Amino acid sequence: MLGPFIGFDFFPSVDAGLIQLHVRAPARMRIEDTERIFQAVENKIREHIRPEDLDLVLDNIGLPQRLYNLAFTDGSAIGVNDGQILISLRQGHRPTAEYVRSLREELHQAFPDVLFYFQPADMVTQILNFGIPSQVDVEVQGRDHDENRALAKTLKQRMSALPGLVDVHIQQELDAPELRYDIDRNRAQELGLSISSVANDINVSLSSSEQVSPNFWTDPKAGIPYYLAVQTPQYRVSSVDDIKNTPISSQASAQAPIPNVLGNIASITRRPVQSVFNHENVQPVYDIYGSVQDSDLGTAATKIRAIVNDLQGKLKPGNRIAVRGQIESMNSAFKDLTIGLLFAALFVYLLMVVNFQSFLDPLAVLLALPGVGCGIVLMLFATETSLSVPSLMGAIMAMGVKPGRSNAAASPGAPRSPLSRSLPASSAMACGATPRPVQWRSKYCGTSTTWCRRCVPRQSARSAIRKRSI
């Protein structure tokens, strides 16, 4: 009866006094504007956490300069509008979960246009997530981009409505602003321009000539090579009109009296686009991340599985929805440990059959295992602890104590009660025969008391012998 009220978790939570908050500003925001948002969020955090509990606050904004450094990160940062705030608490602080719960509510109200979600800060939880920045990861995989994107948004909305599931968001950025220039080919041909020359000139102006024709200059004294690139200063392309006035070279520019610019041959439109693309096994994927609060992971997994089964039928062939993160690891671990528990009970029974020289007597010992299981469930319920991998391993050990002690007392030549030889174990116990586990306990539990009682006479006898010898 108490089983449904216990719940399931992969591993129990650890209060390490660390908080890792991921902050994502609106898409395509410049890094100096992102820094202002981070400063405002940090000020809000300092107002919320008591000064005697706060030890250190550290901000990591944007991407590393070299892509090699990305191998040492969790890959959650996607641009200069992204970053993390690391918070360290002092010894004797209030429970970290209380600060996380209150910060989650206040930050969303204070900054509605900024995405916040808490990542695992301690090393144990980071290892258990296997590189995923969240406990729950639901992936929509397949080649149908438009349908899968719409389904990911629907899945995110339904998961956000689940009680106990927080920080639900789509990891990929789907609403990045983009300026699209459509070139009038007829107009470009009349002006003697080609599509390749227009693209190269725009690329050189916005991204430097290093992208089109890289060039190097080597310092003759130091022998160090340097990139030699040409690029329009960013302050000269700070508006849409500045981009329209970008000069375009052509073969006929020498004879043309008026220089050509981008605005003469292209029209501009604005649209939102996806800025980050992820793949798994060559298949495009959309990740819906989430965490658990005030609930156990098993209950959240059951509700998520019901939503996934409901939406799975709406996918086209070749697309699928996969549940990853700690849910997948927990189900796999519980399955293996349950099989191990059954085989352990079977092997203990076979070992007792050899020692008891009977197939029925070990069954009487195994009848105590349901009582042990009820005691385990009762203690988990009384301590408000979920069934996890450590508690399940402790349950396996507790299940083996009673058969192990009975098995240690049994031997082929051990004396047996005449009544217990002629009757089954349960009938012999009902008729007053002393079961062997009780005999073992009464024999060995009184050993220490008997030894202490007999120590004094032996010491007095030894002193008397010494006196006689003298």
Features:
470 residues; alpha+beta; 5-stranded antiparallel sheet; 45% helix; elongated
What does this structure look like?
- The protein is built from 16 helices and 15 strands.
- The chain is α+β, with helices and mostly antiparallel strands and 470 residues long.
- Helix 4 packs antiparallel against helix 8 (297-312), helix 9 runs parallel beside helix 12 and helix 11 (369-382) runs antiparallel to helix 12 (389-409).
- It is elongated, with a radius of gyration of 36 Å.
- Mean pLDDT is 79; it is low at 411-470.
Short description:
This protein is of the alpha+beta class and 470 residues long. The chain is built from 16 helices and 15 strands.
List the helices and strands and how they pair.
Layout: E1 18-24, H1 31-48, E2 54-61, E3 82-89, H2 96-110, E4 115-119, H3 123-129, E5 136-141, H4 145-160, E6 165-170, E7 176-183, H5 185-190, H6 195-207, E8 216-218, E9 225-227, H7 240-244, E10 247-248, E11 260-261, E12 266-273, E13 278-280, E14 283-292, H8 297-312, E15 320-325, H9 326-356, H10 361-366, H11 369-382, H12 389-409, H13 418-422, H14 425-430, H15 436-444, H16 447-469
Antiparallel strand pairs: 1-3, 1-4, 2-3, 5-14, 5-15, 6-14, 7-12, 8-9, 10-11, 13-14
